[in-house]
């Protein structure tokens, strides 16, 4: 039994996919399958079975994987002690981040973290929050920074840590007839042609989930490009909802004006999210603390 075999079976259990586990383990799919098969032969048991939901552990496989996770946790603790002593972290972090966050908080967070730990490779995917949560649940991302509706029921397999709370404002062009008003009623905002940020052709974005609680709304565009989203707003083709902490960012664009919602508080929560199946390494915890330090300055008060 080799240590990497324990990592391999845990990766498959976390992702439910041999191909995704192989990608995360930086080996080929045949090599990963061979590694697991050899371990099954050595142990004399079947660790996984194929189902309609993907590759799932057998009953005895689940017990073995739990022990493997405990062994890996112990190994990571040993590594953490060494890293704390040498102060030289290495490895990779896979992040899934909401675009509103990537254009603000993450700019300073990544710069600060890389200055402190140049040996750590940070891979950041920018995507819509619901899509990011699916990537986290599938083991494609170690953790994410996402937006959620306040009071929304949490998924049982996810760990959620709130960074701060905010509320949505309406973004319009400086040439819009609404631009000089400062605030608009929600129903008037919903009547505007809207652009929503969507990724991978999914339409169940977190903004949609929040708005549909308040009635019908008019979607003109669904885009997965943040610069294009800014352009269509600036050209007065549509409006968009965004968190209030982004107001200065959009005001600096010169062509976009944020408006408060006069009669309704569209409260949202900016959170760290990771799956309970994933053991947070020391470098991941350090990255989280860096993100938290910059987020603490953005708590909305109003």
Quick description:
With 302 residues, this protein is an alpha/beta fold. It is built from 12 helices and 12 strands. The strands form 3 sheets. Strands 3, 4, 5, 6, 7, 10, 11 and 12 form an 8-stranded mixed β-sheet that branches.
Provide an overview of this structure.
- With 302 residues, the chain is of the alpha/beta class.
- It is 42% helix and 25% strand.
- The chain is built from 12 helices and 12 strands.
- It has helices spanning 3-15, 18-25, 29-43, 59-86, 99-102, 105-116, 129-137, 186-190, 206-211, 226-234, 247-251, 282-295; strands at residues 48-51, 54-57, 91-97, 120-126, 143-149, 158-173, 183-184, 193-197, 218-223, 240-243, 256-261, 267-275.
- The strands form 3 sheets. Strands 3, 4, 5, 6, 7, 10, 11 and 12 form an 8-stranded mixed beta sheet that branches. A two-stranded antiparallel ribbon has the order 1-2.
- A hairpin with a 2-residue loop joins strand 1 and strand 2.
- The protein is elongated, with a radius of gyration of 22 Å.
- Keywords: DNA-binding, Transcription, Transcription regulation.
- Belongs to the LysR transcriptional regulatory family.
- InterPro entries: HTH-type_LysR_regulators, LysR_HTH_N, LysR_subst-bd, WH-like_DNA-bd_sf, WH_DNA-bd_sf.
- Pfam families: HTH_1, LysR_substrate.
- This is LysR family transcriptional regulator.
Provide the fold topology:
Layout: H1 3-15, H2 18-25, H3 29-43, E1 48-51, E2 54-57, H4 59-86, E3 91-97, H5 99-102, H6 105-116, E4 120-126, H7 129-137, E5 143-149, E6 158-173, E7 183-184, H8 186-190, E8 193-197, H9 206-211, E9 218-223, H10 226-234, E10 240-243, H11 247-251, E11 256-261, E12 267-275, H12 282-295
Parallel strand pairs: 3-4, 3-5, 7-11, 8-9
Antiparallel strand pairs: 1-2, 5-12, 6-10, 6-11, 6-12
Helix pairs in contact: 1-2, 1-3, 1-4, 2-3, 6-12
